[in-house]
Amino acid sequence: MKIFLSRFFIFLIGLLIGAIITFNTLGLILGNIIYQELSDPKLNINITGIVNHSQDLSQINELEQTLPNAQKITLPSADNRTMTGTFINNNSDKTVILIHGLYQNRSMSIIYTDTYAQLGFNVLLIDLRSHGESDGIITWGQTEIKDIDLWCDYLRSSQNQHIIGIHGVSLGGAFALLHSGISARSADFYVEDSSYSDLKSLYYNHLHNMVQLPTNSKILDVLWAYSQICMYWHTGATLDDLSPQKAVQKDTAPILFLHGDADTLIPPAALYDLYNNCHAPKQMHIFKNSIHAQGIADYPEEYNQTVRDFLQENNLI
């Protein structure tokens, strides 16, 4: 009888260990699929509704061909990827780096160039990795922060720039904020337009709706945890580590926060989360009845004056 119980106990332990191994193996497989999908344009387009214009370079090609002081620049990144940008030299020792949104390219930033040219800045429009003419894959800020450092180093060493600002829109705004709190070489000022406060919450809520799980379901909770384990394995970071809301808590440079109050892709609540968590010199402006990242198109004069006032108040112009 004792032998039977002993063998039965060993059998149960083995069964339990096997179940745990099987559960974790399946969790890691499915979690890795979710992680891979987060960098897949098809999934992001389904979730966000953003049309992929990342390879439409017609506008920036025309600008480089027609504007005498515009020069295409390519630099090798730390992981040997090619980063591409367009430098517009306005004979200044101040430059602003313009960063576009998800599935766009540096063409999206053209509309912001006059804003800074009128204020006496050179302008550097960059393609994020996996967008436009830049190589690599999207890592939600993990390697993009290093790419921004690369551009800042280029401006300081090759263009002798003394003041460098970063102006990002949507995903570009999030990366600007991440840079403000994560990079040891922060810029002199930041302007973020329509950034999310926490990508984890944004995607998590959208995925809940996309797979039509009940709000109290724990299935996605488990799968999300495994996906972040896989993300850490691949990149050394999780989406919790790449939170603009957390990054701005460490920022010391002045930040201007911009948002439209009719933004449904990234609701205005994100603006307040970011602003309230920032302890550096800061300003906030909301564009009435403006949808996602359309402030400058809807209110060009108001947009330009807001940027001007911010820079003047911080003695940057």
From TrEMBL:
Keyword Nucleotidyltransferase attributed: no
Superkingdom per UniProt: Bacteria
Keyword Nucleotide-binding part of the UniProt annotation: no
Domain AB hydrolase-1 intervals: 95-177
Signal peptide per UniProt: none
Keyword terms: Hydrolase, Membrane, Transmembrane, Transmembrane helix
One MF term in the entry's GO annotations: hydrolase activity
Transmembrane stretches, start-end: 9-35
InterPro entries found in the cross-reference section: AB_hydrolase_1, AB_hydrolase_fold, DNA-binding_regulatory
PANTHER family: ALPHA/BETA-HYDROLASE (PTHR43358), ALPHA_BETA HYDROLASE FOLD-1 DOMAIN-CONTAINING PROTEIN (PTHR43358:SF4)
Protein name from the UniProt record: Alpha/beta hydrolase
